[in-house]
């Protein structure tokens, strides 16, 4: 996941955990929850770690560069969207309620595959009605997230619109079903 996410003016580039899902570092969560530092997030997690599972949080090794431009390896805790939402439920900050709503929207979007990235075999598994519903939701999300006129994110919106139009065209083509000629029926009867 490489797209920037924006919550209340904070831009966050999700941590790439190699699974294509949205992950937040403890530092991200501290910024989003408006804590002074990530130690507060780690304390919150440690007090409630029995409520988290491996799909919600993990400790990973992240590479970065120090002030001397040397590569360093740091172990850091990351939270999936669900794990981040649980942190938001446990947090007692003014922004926690808005963060929970924002994270639920992310979770919903993450749980639905992006139709523009699906191959034909996977598309066949999704009904036309479901495809249309997902395209409408994708378009609404894109407009809400990247549709501010004059913003740099409008270029992302234009790319989304191009993909959305391609998917809408494909859905329209799929919905045009031609019935094959069934030939003559015995005894001149019509089909029921």
TrEMBL record:
Residues covered by the Bro-N domain: 1-119
PROSITE patterns given in the database record: BRO_N (PS51750)
Superkingdom of origin: Bacteria
InterPro entries named among the record's database cross-references: BRO_N_domain
Entry protein name: Bro-N domain-containing protein
Organism: Providencia manganoxydans
